[in-house]
């Protein structure tokens, strides 16, 4: 059994919750196209890349558009989203995150961010957490979105650790699958009914300690 050397974290829903901002921007886009999307529908978009999300939304609205128009819409949605997240501060960090990261540092574990969002560096800067990560893998560094494991395997490679020495923290089904496909131990943050592939599930980082994670892994 390998020992754990690194913790890899998704951003949305784990460190901060920007889902509401994504939803507001996507809903505005859908409304301009003549239909609506619900918060329940928005759950399908968690952990999914921007263009894939747009395809899901267009299918929902029964629309087929040329790639050029789709690129234009995705850019517009991102501009609206950036207007919202640019107002974020450290107050937007989810409960328990600061305490958990303090424990991570005391345990001498490496950290990486594994987010498909190209806006991840901006968000980390706004909430003051850029320095909390030894490696940052975002949407600009990958060619495949989750559930492909690339975002996590690249994080492990940048930290110079083996996948089997990594724990992934994810709140989305696609992210949990990505971690498992990457050969990593995955802690799901959320509902056990949803994150069925995770090795271990907790409500949030606030409900976890580093020792508990390491104990679960060694078992």
TrEMBL record:
Which segment of the chain is annotated as a signal peptide? none
Per the UniProt entry, the Enzyme Commission number(s) are 5.4.2.6
Alphabetical UniProt keywords: Carbohydrate metabolism, Isomerase, Magnesium, Metal-binding, Phosphoprotein
Q: Does the keyword Phosphoprotein apply?
A: yes
Q: Which residues bind Mg(2+)?
A: 10, 12, 170-171
Cofactor binding note of this UniProt entry: Binds 2 magnesium ions per subunit.
Question: Active-site residues?
Answer: 10, 12
Its cofactor is: Mg(2+)
UniProt xrefs under InterPro entries: B-phosphoglucomutase_hydrolase, Beta-PGM, Beta-PGM-like, HAD-like_sf, HAD-SF_hydro_IA, HAD_sf, PGP-like_dom2
State the superkingdom: Bacteria
| Major enzyme class | isomerase
Q: Name one GO biological process term.
A: carbohydrate metabolic process
Q: Where is this site: Important for catalytic activity and assists the phosphoryl transfer reaction to Asp8 by balancing charge and orienting the reacting groups?
A: 115, 146
Q: Does the keyword Isomerase apply?
A: yes
Q: What protein family is recorded? A: Belongs to the HAD-like hydrolase superfamily. CbbY/CbbZ/Gph/YieH family.
Name under which the protein is recorded = Beta-phosphoglucomutase
Organism encoding this protein = Spirosoma aureum
UniProt lists the gene as: pgmB
């Amino acid at each position: 059994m390998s020992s754990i050397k690194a913790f890899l974290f998704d951003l949305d829903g784990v460190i901060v919750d920007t889902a509401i901002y994504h939803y507001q921007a996507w809903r505005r886009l859908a409304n301009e196209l003549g239909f609506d999307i619900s918060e329940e529908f928005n759950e399908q978009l968690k952990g999914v890349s921007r263009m894939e999300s747009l395809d899901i939304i267009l299918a929902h609205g029964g629309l087929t558009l040329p790639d050029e128009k789709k690129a234009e819409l995705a850019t517009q949605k991102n501009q609206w989203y950036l207007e919202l997240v640019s107002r974020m501060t450290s107050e937007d960090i989810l409960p328990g995150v600061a305490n958990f990261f303090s424990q991570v540092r005391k345990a001498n574990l490496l950290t990486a961010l594994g987010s498909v969002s190209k806006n991840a560096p901006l968000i980390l800067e706004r909430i003051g957490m850029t320095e909390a990560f030894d490696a940052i893998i975002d949407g600009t560094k990958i060619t495949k979105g989750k559930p492909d494991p690339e975002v996590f395997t690249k994080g492990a490679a940048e930290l110079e650790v083996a996948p089997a020495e990594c724990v992934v923290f994810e709140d989305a089904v696609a992210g949990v699958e990505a971690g498992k496909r990457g050969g990593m131990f995955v802690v799901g943050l959320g509902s056990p009914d949803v994150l069925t592939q995770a090795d271990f599930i907790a409500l949030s980082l606030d409900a976890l300690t580093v020792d508990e994670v390491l104990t679960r892994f060694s078992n």
